[in-house]
From TrEMBL:
Domain Zinc finger DksA/TraR C4-type positions: 80-112
Protein name: TraR/DksA family transcriptional regulator
PANTHER family attached to this UniProt entry: RNA POLYMERASE-BINDING TRANSCRIPTION FACTOR DKSA, RNA POLYMERASE-BINDING TRANSCRIPTION FACTOR DKSA-RELATED
Record carries keyword Chaperone: no
Length: 113
């Protein structure tokens, strides 16, 4: 992969990282403990709040995982290993990386998983 292409993917990763980090604080607040005081809210409102909390917690876990994948991809760029499948060591199609610049498997190996 040439330097221009690598820099393009580096920028995609950095942009996505910044985007995820900017919503991280909002996610922490939404995943906070739900108030269960029955005098404060009705049962259905509490159930809705608990469901929203569970969704927020799942989104926070996914955001954390994606940030870890981005960090790993940026490390691969720095080491010169970016764009190669972790299983077969073949090049990952740039179109696949365009969709997910943190992809670690080529499409063939990903389909086998």
């Amino acid at each position: 992969m040439d330097e221009k292409t690598t820099n393009h993917f580096r920028q995609l990763l950095l942009n996505r990282q910044a985007e995820l980090q900017s919503v991280e604080q909002i996610g922490h607040e939404a995943a906070a403990t739900v108030e269960l005081d029955q005098s404060a809210v009705g049962r259905l409102s509490r159930m809705d709040a608990m469901q929203a909390q569970a969704v927020s917690q799942e989104m926070e876990q996914r955001r954390t995982l994606e940030l870890q994948r981005i960090k790993a991809a940026l490390a691969c760029i720095e080491s010169g290993d970016y764009g190669y499948c972790l299983r077969c060591d073949e090049s990952i199609n740039p179109h696949r990386l365009e969709i997910d610049p943190s992809a670690t498997l080529c499409i063939q190996c990903a389909e086998k998983s």
